Amino acid sequence: MRLLVPTNWDPALIEPLSRLEAGIELYGVLATSLIGTGGSSPDNVDMVQGQAEEYVKRAHAAGLRFDYLLNAPSMSNMEWDENTHRELLEHLEWISSIDVDSVTVTIPYLVELIKRQFPRLKIRISTIAHVNSVARARFFELLGADSINLDFNVNRDFKTLEAIRSAVSCEIIILANNLCLYQCPYEYYHHDGLGHASQSYNPVNGCYVDYCTIRCTLDRLRDVSQNLKCRWVRPEDLQAYEGIGIEVFKISGRAMSSERILNAAAAYSSGHYQGNLHDILNVLTPKIGFINAGLPGLQSHTVAPPPKLHIDNQALEGFVDFFRKQNCLSECHRCDYCRKMADKVIQFDRNEVDQYVAMLTEVLHSLSGSSMFEAEAGASKHLP
Ligand code: SF4
Ligand code: SF4
Q1: Angstrom distance (rounded) from CA 145 to CA 137
Q2: Which CATH class is domain 2-373?
Q3: Cα separations (Å) of 137 from 170, 173, 259, 325?
């Protein structure tokens, strides 16, 4: 079994990860880069290229491979602008020169470009490319993919997983600790917004509002059964995937604390976790306001993390078996399996949840009413 683990660039992650029993590979990306990333980056980590280079060296010295993310969903067509295209090639030269083992890519054109001009780099397809069928997996393999992160929405669809596994020969990866909504309606918009905000040349100058995380956090708290519908995989259930020939798993959460990353890595590496499943899932904290705007007068602040739910991991023994016969795509409106299980295995503080929901609802109200721009002259603009 191999495990892909996110880095928040903390050097203290390297040594403990190198001692885990699974083959560990780190992945990460600088907060701002030419291609950008479709996922949330850690706050307050202002790395420069030289530091990233040193970090990759230290990971290699400890026996860890390194994957660099190039996974924004689009480059706003700037890949076809001659000057930006040259910068893109320079950026890829740098990535190749620091000896990363692979890159994770969403844009199909980049797969072909890297394959042709930087053949040393192995190419992984990002989960943001939504590979959720035999047809799409085969297209990407033909394009040059060495490895594919599947769309997490198919994590519990074993029939499709088995079919994809037997239809392609490249590596297949399951994202294991994701707390994204099942069939999240904000997903494309979210990755797109993050991608553009993290691109160095983008005229939005990093401006971004965390609408999607605010929205999905509200959805999970208003209906806690959504936390079970999410397609995470318990550490104990990794063996169900190994049984069908899928042996590489990925932990999400580059914005998580080092302690949480190590805790999740240890659980998935050992295939056992005694305790609250919520503690090893990638729980995002919504940020309120304009983020990284780089414009005077606009600011953001992070609110407290969402209320902690207690999800009894041991009580979920056998939970995954139901999905072997259930067609969630077409049956979710008349199935109450996740709601009934949620009643049994999830506990939370109702007052704390109600207060958090009220706060986020007020923020959303200001977004849908456009009142976030109505600041007093001279005062900094911010959401509630
Ligand atoms: S569930 Fe939330 S974090 Fe995940 S893709 Fe949807 S909006 Fe983004
Ligand atoms: S169809 Fe049933 S098992 Fe599947 S996500 Fe919906 S409630 Fe859960």
Answers
A1: 9
A2: alpha beta
A3: 9, 12, 34, 23
Taking the alpha carbons of 168, 169, 175, 176 in that order, is the dihedral positive or negative? positive
Q: Cβ distance 214 to 364 under 8 Å?
A: yes
CA of 64 to the centre of ligand 1 (A): 29
Q: Which two tokens stand for residue 247?
A: 């042996």
CA–centroid distance, residue 298 to ligand 2 (Å): 41
3-state secondary structure of 236: helix
Q: Is 34 in the pocket of ligand 1 (CB under 6 A)?
A: no
State the burial class of residue 287 (Cβ atoms within 10 Å of its Cβ: 0-12, 13-18, 19+).
buried
Could you report the per-residue pLDDT of 204-258, keeping only the tens digit for each? 777 888 999 999 999 999 999 999 999 999 999 999 999 999 999 999 999 999 9
Give the closest ligand to the alpha carbon of residue 338.
Answer: 2
**pLDDT tops 60 at residue 384:** no
Residue 330, C-beta contacts closer than 8 angstroms, at least 6 positions apart: none
Q: How far is the CA of 26 from the centre of ligand 1 (A)?
A: 22
The per-residue pLDDT for range 275-321, each reduced to its tens digit, is 999 999 999 999 877 776 554 444 566 678 999 999 999 999 999 99
